[in-house]
Amino acid sequence: MNIKSKVTMAGLFLLAAMMLTGGLQHKTPEKTYPSDHLIRLHIVANSDSASDQELKRKVRDEIIRCVARDFLGAGNIDTARTIARSDLTQIKETASREIKENGQDYPVNVELDSFTFPTKHYGPFVLPAGDYEAVRVIIGSGGGTNWWCVLFPPLCFVDMSKGMVISQPGNNGPAPVISTQNVTFEKEQPPDAATTQKPDAFREAANAATNGETIAKVEFRFKILDFFRNLHSI
Q: Which alpha helices (DSSP H) does the chain contain, by range?
């Protein structure tokens, strides 16, 4: 083995070690979020039939539209809880209207209470199994797959993929126009299935939801890769 090959192999081992240790140092640890500072939105479909699941998603979209402005203006958990209570009637009316517009006559039950949830992963945050306050919307018999997101902090209204937050209109302005293409929903999935969202993107988007800060994209490069390119050109 010539000197160039030995140097290359040594460098590769060094690079692997750097990437391993760097990954361990910069890996974002999962953090638990206090259940008493969080309000979920929980929507349960009538059944798992394709039509009932599609109806659940349509009801979800309309509910998100009708409560977005209120929850984006909530500065703390107490305000969010007050908003949730005052919006229950509006949420029920919205869900019932959407159900009827889709040719169904399912009853709707809406309540704000404490419910038991399994462990869920939301970006770098872990919501441990336990009791959480939630606005629960049950469509019909409530025998289908459920869907959930977080109303407060207002993560229901954050587009994780673009780092965008739905703008909050003034109190006297028109209701916000929300495209569901710009809203990231927590997908129906097994309790232990981790989200594919990057932790940094989640954290920045969550901060933006409360602080209105601009998301800054940062690009990192391993300079040692340039060294190896130059080495092979010798």
A: 3-26, 50-72, 77-101, 199-211, 223-232
